[in-house]
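TL;DR need structure tokens for one chain.
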Amino acid sequence: MNILPDPNATVASLLTPEAAKAAALAAATATAPGVLTVDLDAIVANWRKIEKTAVPAEAAAVVKGDAYGCGIGPVSKALAAAGCKTFFVATLGEAGAVRAIAPDAVIYVLDGFFQTTGDEFARLNCRPVIGDLYELAEWDVYCRRTRWSGGAAIHIDTGMNRLGLTVAEAQGIVPRIAAGDHGITLVISHLAAAEALNHPMNARQVTAFREIASLFTGVAASLSASSGVFLGPQFAFDMVRPGAALYGINPTPEADNPMKPVVDLKARIVQVRSVERGDSVGYGGTWTARRPTRIAVLSAGYADGYFRAAGSNDGTRGADVVIAGQRCPIAGRVSMDLLAVDVTDLPANAARRGLMATLIGDGITVDELGHHFGTIGYEVLTSLGTRYARIYSGGDAKPEETPAEQSGA
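>> reply
TL;DR here they are.
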């Protein structure tokens, strides 16, 4: 018996998942200058790898900065579905985005507590990470006045000298732990040089934190973010807080990257032109053709988070892009909306108007691009612009998300 399709079904619902994804990609890229694809399955795999490495410690997830530019809504949803129970954010706005996705999750807000924010902490049922005694006093006053008992973390500075109570200040509040009903659910610190395996600060900080955390009887302790997870089990304590590693940034820069790549970034070729030997390309005329040259102009620039520092001049090679499976060097300076690429060595017609070039992916890593940008992978991801079409693959994400869904609004 032949079963006819439901006449009320949409075209998309009649497609296989693969065909639906391809259709969504085509629709999203029809007008966009580029495409940013985020692999949610890779993020989940990276979280599970860290969870396994840190066992028996709990693996939380840091999703601040719009999940390092990858989309706090889709990322939090995928991680919560995978079993992540604790999330760290920087702001209350980010906490609200996670709470909308993960109603039962524990959410810590790293930027701390102010009297004016107490009601929002209570409404969202999230926990401040308290970093000084004035902040602790304000939190105490709010909890007494409202009888809110949502809990808080205490941040102790063991060497970063950024946020946190001093060790002496932390020792001063230890008696309240013995008194009970203290409301402190976690004590944390932060490693300053965890990416360097043998940096002497690591040993000093883990020793200092172990000593002070041991005084907070019955309170869970957390020291390590991404790189600290790979320093050894003595750094794990009760919880680890990976961020960058979840998104494919190498947490062990002195060794091969143990994490899966997460982001693929492509930009459209808007024009291919010929340049004569001796002609310059781009602002300032800093790059000169040494032979008859074919130049492909791509629709991405520093307004899209592709830093001007990645350009080249006659004495220095800049970053590469991949076209037709082959690396091609940037020619001249990166502009606000455009960058030029030398495609002379590609086969004829391999670089054509309308095709996409790969800026991240196909062997070009976020960390490599960070090197050319004169920065780190963290800044590369968090700088990616809003003009790209965003595609989420893996998990139960839709192939295409609206801007509101991406931001968790």
